[in-house]
């Protein structure tokens, strides 16, 4: 469950455990306790709980530095930039980052946020795949904070939901196959039978 962080949640452990891990651009100096304190004071830190323990976190930047980049869209002033997205090291590889971000997106949509923008390290294919699977569009590349990044954006006000029907079967199968790098079956007879049964 994603929720707004409280003072008792001010831990640096998740951040520090990431330093030195593959694809991570964080250092011993960043992120730090000052970042957590600032985010808490401005209600910009969110934690993801799993069985009563903090499994991950996401921060909203107080100032959206990405709004000044040419490739990033400016909508209506309700865009946000997220950063310091992390899942506890012992829980990585279980799809929790995607789950946490999915819940965060739903929460931001309820708050009438029009777009979520972020930087993802250019050398981090795992994070890039996670963001792409959630619908983030990669807009360009930039060099900031001494690192190469890809800028990404998810526009929330252009997304609608509806119940899937039989006409969506082929596209749904393509999506699921893509997640596992499998080809789409040529014969969908069995898939259609299972769909009808469901």
Provide a compact summary of the structure:
The protein has six helices and seven strands. The protein has helices spanning 13-18, 33-41, 96-110, 125-133, 169-179, 189-197, and strands spanning 2-4, 45-50, 53-60, 79-87, 115-121, 137-144, 147-155. The protein has a seven-stranded mixed β-sheet.
What does this molecule look like?
A hairpin with a 2-residue loop joins strand 6 (137-144) and strand 7. The protein is globular, with a radius of gyration of 19 Å. The chain has six helices and seven strands. The protein starts with a strand and ends with a helix. It is an alpha+beta fold and 198 residues long. It has a seven-stranded mixed beta sheet. The mean pLDDT is 88.
Structural class: alpha+beta
Poorly predicted segments: none
**How many individual helices?**
6
Helix content: 25-40%
Total number of strands: 7
Ends distance: 28 Å
State mean pLDDT (0 to 100 scale).
Answer: 88
Radius of gyration: 19 Å
Can you write the helix and strand succession as a string? EHHEEEHEHEEHH
Shape descriptor: globular
What can be said about the biggest beta sheet? Answer: 7 strands, mixed
Strand content: 25-35%
Strand order of the largest sheet: 1-2-3-4-5-7-6
């Amino acid at each position: 469950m994603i929720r707004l962080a409280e003072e008792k949640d001010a831990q640096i452990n998740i951040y520090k455990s990431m330093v030195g891990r593959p694809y991570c651009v964080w250092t011993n100096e960043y992120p730090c306790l000052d970042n957590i304190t600032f985010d808490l004071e401005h209600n910009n830190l969110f934690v993801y709980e799993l069985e009563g323990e903090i499994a991950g976190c996401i921060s909203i930047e107080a100032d959206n530095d990405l709004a000044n980049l040419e490739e990033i869209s400016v909508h209506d002033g309700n865009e946000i930039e997220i950063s310091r997205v992390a899942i506890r090291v012992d829980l990585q590889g279980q799809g929790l980052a995607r789950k946490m971000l999915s819940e965060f997106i739903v929460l931001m949509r309820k708050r009438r946020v029009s777009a979520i923008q972020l930087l993802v390290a250019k050398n981090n294919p795992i994070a890039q795949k996670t963001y792409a699977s959630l619908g983030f569009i990669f807009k360009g590349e930039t060099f900031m904070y001494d690192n190469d990044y890809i800028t990404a954006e998810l526009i929330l006000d252009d997304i609608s939901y509806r119940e899937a029907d039989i006409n969506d079967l082929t596209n749904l199968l393509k999506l699921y196959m893509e997640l596992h790098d499998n080809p789409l079956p040529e014969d969908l007879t069995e898939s259609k039978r299972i769909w009808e049964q469901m």
